[in-house]
TrEMBL record:
Family: Belongs to the DNA polymerase type-Y family.
Name recorded for this polypeptide: DNA polymerase IV
Domain of life: Bacteria
Gene encoding the protein: dinB
Protein EC: 2.7.7.7
Cofactor note: Binds 2 magnesium ions per subunit.
Residue span(s) of domain UmuC: 34-218
Length: 468
C-alpha cells in the first residue's frame, strides 16, 4: 500500500488545497472516500479463468486476422512487450507462442455485471467507466467512518468479494480524495493490488510522475509540453495558469493547472444520474452491408425513442457506437438545437453519423444513444425532423444476418454431442480443432472434426436483460 509520510503543509480538515492564481478554490474531499476499481487484464483474465490450459500462459484477445488489433494482453504476454492497441501482427512477432483469441463478449458482460452489482450493493453512487472499471463513492456507503484504517479494510474486503463473485478474477483498487487520485492509485500496484493515498500527500505522489498521467494528455499534448520543457507533474506545477493556457488552450490549460495540484472536485455520478439512454447489439457475423447497418440503427433509434417517451424524457445529443472487425471502437455524436424524442430525428442523425465512418472491413457491434436529457419537448421549429420519414409504428423489422456456415473463431465456446463443452483451438482447411474443458474442469483433451460435423455446435451463454 502506498503510504507516504504526510506533508507538514497538508490541507486543514474539511477544506481543500490552496486557491489558484485567480482566486478560484477547488474544494476537494478531506478524506480518501473515492474508490477506483480496475479488473486486471480483464478480457484475457476471463479467458484464462474459463480455459484451464491457458492459466499462467500468454493470452492475447482481439482481432486475430492480419489487420487485427490487440484488445487485452495477459500479464504473461505483457512480459514480451505485447500491449493493448498494438497490431496483432506485431504481437505475434513478439510472442508467437501466445494463444490468440477472438472476444467472447457475453462472458465479459456476465463477469462485469457481477462486479457492478456488487459495487452497487455497497454504495448507491457507482460510476462505471467501462466493463472492467468503475468509481465508487464511499461517502455514501454504510461505513462507520471514513478514516484510513476503515476504508482500507473495506477495500481489502471488496477485492476479496470481487474474486468470489467472478469465480477467480482479480482487481486492483485505488483510494483517494478525488477521482483523479483514486484512478492514479489503482495503477500503482497491478495486478491484484491496493494503494491508498492519505489526504495531504497527493502532490508528493504526483510530482515525480510523467505529465501523461493526467487525463487528456495524449501523445500530441505530451509532445507539446515536452517541447516546452514540461516532462513531469512537478514541471507543470511550477508553471502559472496563463502559460499553460497559452500552450494548450484555455479549457485544457485550466484542467492541467488544477490536476497538477491534485485539485479535482468532480463527483462520482451514477448511471441513473448520468441521464443517457442507449441500445446496442453485437452480431455473430461481421456486418458489411451499409444499408443493413442503416436499418439496424433505425430500429435501435426506435427503441431508444420509445424508452425516452416512456419516461417522459427527450435529448439533444445523438451518438452512435461502432465496433469494427478488429476491435477498434468508434464513437460519433451530433447535438440538436432542442431536445427530441422522435424516432425519425434520432434515426436520421444516427445514419448521418455512420456515413462518416469507414466500415468496409466489417462491423461487429452497433449502438445508438441519446444524452443531454430534458423533461420537455420543443416543437420542430427548425425543420430538423424529416417529414418523409416513416412513423415509429411503420419502421421495418430488420434482422442481422446469421451465417449459413458457422465460423469457428479461436476461443469460441462450443459443445459436442459426445464430448460436451469446449472451445475452439483453431480451424482451417475444412477442420476445426477443439480443446474440451471449462472453468470447472482440469485441462482437457484436444480433438479435431470436420467443420460441418453435425455433432459440433456453438455454445452460447444466456444473456440477462439490460436496460440502458
Amino acid at each position: 500500500m502506498h503510504n507516504p509520510s504526510p506533508r507538514a503543509t497538508g490541507p486543514t480538515p474539511g477544506t481543500s488545497q490552496p486557491v489558484d492564481d485567480r482566486g478560484y478554490v477547488a474544494l476537494v474531499r478531506a478524506q480518501a472516500s473515492v474508490l477506483h476499481l480496475d479488473l486486471d487484464a480483464f478480457f484475457a483474465a476471463v479467458e484464462q479463468r474459463d480455459k484451464p490450459s491457458l492459466r499462467g500462459k500468454p493470452v492475447v484477445v482481439g482481432g486475430v486476422g492480419g489487420r487485427g488489433v490487440v484488445a487485452t494482453a495477459s500479464y504473461e504476454a505483457r512480459q514480451y512487450g505485447v500491449r493493448s492497441a498494438m497490431s496483432t501482427r506485431e504481437a505475434r512477432s513478439r510472442c508467437p507462442h501466445a494463444a490468440f483469441l477472438g472476444g467472447r463478449f457475453p462472458a465479459y458482460r456476465e463477469a462485469s455485471a457481477a462486479v457492478m452489482g456488487l459495487l452497487r450493493s455497497v454504495s448507491p453512487l457507482v460510476e462505471p467507466l467501462s466493463l472492467d472499471e468503475a468509481f465508487v463513492d464511499l461517502a455514501r456507503a454504510d461505513l462507520p467512518d471514513l478514516e484510513l484504517t476503515t476504508v482500507t479494510a473495506f477495500a481489502e474486503e471488496l477485492r476479496q468479494r470481487v474474486h468470489e463473485v467472478t469465480h477467480g478474477l482479480t482487481a486492483s483498487v485505488g483510494l483517494g480524495t478525488s477521482k483523479f487520485i483514486a484512478k492514479v492509485a489503482s495503477e500503482l500496484d497491478k495486478p491484484d493490488g491496493l494503494t491508498v493515498v492519505p489526504p495531504g500527500t497527493e502532490r508528493d505522489l504526483l510530482r515525480p510522475m510523467a505529465v501523461s498521467v493526467i487525463p487528456g494528455v495524449g501523445p500530441a499534448t505530451d509532445e507539446r509540453l515536452r517541447r516546452a520543457g514540461l516532462r513531469t507533474v512537478a514541471d507543470l506545477e511550477a508553471v502559472d495558469l496563463d502559460e499553460l493556457v497559452r500552450l494548450v488552450g484555455k479549457a485544457h490549460g485550466s484542467g492541467l493547472w488544477h490536476l497538477a495540484r491534485a485539485l479535482d472536485d468532480r463527483p462520482v455520478v451514477s448511471e441513473r444520474e448520468a441521464k443517457s439512454v442507449s441500445v446496442e447489439g453485437t452480431y455473430e457475423t461481421d456486418l458489411t452491408d451499409r444499408r443493413l447497418m442503416e436499418g439496424l440503427l433505425t430500429r435501435q433509434a426506435g427503441e431508444v425513442a420509445a424508452r425516452l417517451r416512456k419516461h417522459g424524457l427527450s435529448g439533444r445529443t445523438i451518438s452512435i457506437k461502432v465496433r469494427l472487425h478488429d476491435f477498434t471502437t468508434l464513437s460519433r455524436s451530433s447535438t440538436l438545437s432542442s431536445p427530441t424524442d422522435a424516432t425519425a430525428t434520432i434515426a436520421r442523425l444516427a445514419r448521418a453519423l455512420l456515413a462518416d465512418l469507414d466500415t468496409s472491413g466489417g462491423v461487429r457491434l452497433l449502438g445508438v444513444g441519446v444524452s443531454g436529457l430534458a423533461d420537455w419537448i420543443q416543437d420542430d421549429l427548425f425543420g430538423e425532423s424529416d417529414p418523409g420519414a416513416p412513423a415509429d409504428d411503420d419502421l421495418p423489422m430488420i434482422e442481422a444476418p446469421t451465417s449459413r456456415r458457422t465460423t469457428w473463431a479461436p476461443g469460441m465456446d462450443v459443445v459436442h454431442a459426445a464430448m460436451g463443452r469446449g472451445w475452439v483451438w483453431g480451424s482451417g482447411r475444412g477442420v476445426v480443432t477443439v480443446r474440451f474443458e471449462t472453468a470447472q474442469t482440469p485441462p482437457g483433451p484436444v480433438r479435431s472434426y470436420p467443420i460441418d460435423d453435425p455433432d459440433l455446435a456453438p455454445w452460447r451463454l444466456p444473456l440477462p436483460e439490460h436496460d440502458a
